[in-house]
Amino acid sequence: MVVEVVSSKSGDCAAESGGTVQLADLQEMHNQFREQLDAGLKKLAENQAKACRPAGRRQPCGAEGTADPVPDAVAQLEAQEADAGGLEAR
After folding, report:
1. Could you tell me where the beta strands, DSSP code E, fall in the chain?
2. Which of 25, 30, 32, 52 could serve as 61's disulfide partner, Cβ 3.0–4.6 Å?
3. Closest Cα to residue 21, out of 2, 43, 7?
4. What does each C-alpha distance from 14 to 10, 17, 25, 66 come to in angstroms?
5. Is the distance from CB of 12 to CB of 28 less than 8 angstroms?
6. With b meaning 16 or more CB within 10 Å and e meaning fewer, what string describes 14-28?
7. Whether 5 contacts 16, CB under 8 Å
8. CA-to-CA distance for 16 and 90, rounded, in angstroms?
9. Calpha distance 67→41 (Å, rounded)
């Protein structure tokens, strides 16, 4: 299977380069990625459950209406949209 590198980190394959990968190897990479993702999500859920249920507390963290508002949330979202628009324009 022919693949194209769209973006990369320093030290990895250069962006806009390409190559070939066996389909079985690509499937194995995907399976390993899913395993790591599932393990990470499981660990996150376990840690969140521990942090959000201190002794004697009945309501979990993040219950509706308990979050403090972020004063500059609109500015943060606008900055993220501008950054995303710049990336899409490349």
Report:
1. 2-4, 18-20
2. 52
3. 2
4. 8, 6, 20, 46
5. no
6. eeeeeeeeeeeeeee
7. yes
8. 12
9. 22
For residues 15 and 4, the answer to whether their CB atoms sit within 8 Å is: no
Positions in the chain whose pLDDT score sits under 50:
none
Which pLDDT score, from 0 to 100, does residue 56 have? 56
Cβ 1 vs Cβ 26: under 8 Å: yes
Q: Which two tokens stand for residue 37?
A: 């993702």
Which pLDDT score is estimated for 28? 95
pLDDT in tens, 32-46: 999 999 999 999 888
- Can you tell me the distance from the alpha carbon of 52 to that of 59, in angstroms, rounded to the nearest whole number? 8
